[in-house]
From TrEMBL:
InterPro entries: GTP_cyclohydrolase_FolE2, GTP_cyclohydrolase_FolE2/MptA. It catalyses: GTP + H2O = 7,8-dihydroneopterin 3'-triphosphate + formate + H(+). One of its GO terms (biological process) is tetrahydrofolate biosynthetic process. This is GTP cyclohydrolase FolE2. It comes from Halopseudomonas oceani. NCBIfam families: PRK13674.1-1 (NF010200). Keywords: Hydrolase. Pathway: Cofactor biosynthesis; 7,8-dihydroneopterin triphosphate biosynthesis; 7,8-dihydroneopterin triphosphate from GTP: step 1/1.
Amino acid sequence: MTAALPDVSLSDLSADPAALDWVGMQGIDLPITLNETGQRQTVHACADLQVDLPRPEVKGIHMSRLYTLLDRLGQDRALAPTVLQALLQAMVESHADCGSRNARLVLQFSLLCRRPALVTPQLSGWKAYPVKLEATLVEGRFRARVELTVSYSSTCPCSAALSRQLLVSAYDKAFAGRQRLDPVAVSQWLGRNGSLATPHSQRSEAKVAVDLQAAEESLGLLALIDQIEQALATPVQTAVKRADEQAFAALNGANLMFVEDAARRLGAALSAAGAQHAAVHVRHIESLHPHDAVASVGAHP
């Protein structure tokens, strides 16, 4: 085509002049490159990106410019705060004719990690950790914040105490009046009756959000995941044999926790690690109730 194509975003003025906080696109699919497990990993991400439109008379921004900039993300370098800041700056500069000063990007994806079994040598499996990453450049100030979701198991302390009480009552009844107890008989009784009552436990999830350092060359996702799982002590497992399942049961027994305990554990661990503006939200997907138990600590400033 030899004739110039019309561009109404430039030639027309807004019929209802007004500045807009954010304008852009949502739900863009793209591959991004991560380097969080010692190896480069390409994952599928979903992106939202916008710039502000402070000039009230401008009819519209240039969506294709934003898309083109986003499409280059992670092609040459693994995703990092420095890479995000450069992209946001380029987004603002690409819309100088619109007066844009601010930009933001939200990425959602899952980090896929291979995690070892608890005790069985060389047994492992894949686990996906959902990630939400938000980066903003507002009035020249860059900020990047990551939210991770980690699944774990939680066993109710109250249910455990009630189960122990039933076991003690049954034991007292079975051996009432005996002056001397045969250890073998006691061991056999426990083998038959130790599960007379079992405490309820459930799959649970922790959402942890922290600010990232602008100068970092990595997102530090795996290190944060390790902090979370070590604090909770009962992360869900992938491939297991019976020995691993038994070890997992022992971990749950040694780490009884209400939803309040889980939130406090994580808050303390993140504080000790020096996490910036940490926020925690935990959810126990109850097996006793048709509703969930939740707790939060830390505010988003």
